[in-house]
Amino acid sequence: MSLQIAPRSGGAVVRFAVNGTDVLRPMTADAIASGKGDNAALYPLVPFSNRIANGQLAFEGEMFNVVRNWPGVGHPMHGDGWAHAWDVVCSDAVSARIVYLHERAGEAGGWPFRYRATQSYRLDDDRLTIRISLENLEDRPVPAGIGLHPFFVRDPDTQLICRTLAVWRTDAEVLPVERIAVPAAWDFGAGRTVDSVVLDNCFDGWDGRAAIVWPRRRLRLDLTATVPFRHLVIYIPPAQTSFCVEPVSHANGQVGLAPLGPGGTLAGEVVFHISSLV
Fold it and tell me: DSSP character for 104?
């Protein structure tokens, strides 16, 4: 197993491979040179996941303006971490820890609260473990979310297995409009081929487990996530060579309902366990 990261390019994963076979889509040299992680194999989601409608963040009776930060999207998306350089705290042949310190945004209207985000990576014989945390550096409660945004390689026979209780329907701008029971066409409980559905939706009531199977490659990945990751964004665009299964700590658009107390830390761990199909 091998892992390559680019701390200065959004704290992103460049490549994750098993016996030379990519599990995540590789990050290109141009993407690395951009200094951002939006086209990475995996990038961090801090301090929020997905979109904040029109940049209007309501939190505990106050309204904060968060500027658009994503090309072609009319709403701020996926936080700050992917767009900034992270510092290396330590690293060796099987592990690394990187940190991003966010200062309050000025009048430009960025994220208005100070925080420190940390990612820790560890490779073992059959798994990659990523721990991500966000520490509130303010002396007041702040809205806070964390998540990981991996892009898994996708074959015509790739399958996804996961169990969820509900899903958020979205409007034309991928903003959540209604929480509903998971319809049969979007139910991955018994497993289904990724190419059989097109999705960009947040699921909740997730049990913290998912599996991705590549029959032709004779490979399986079991993903397990600790609390607070009990939401799962599934992004399956049409006619693409990758798809996303994103463990996140809050539903789309609802980071304002996720307070973190003064000096508090929000943290979670995701394990990518690899095995061969018999």
Answer: P
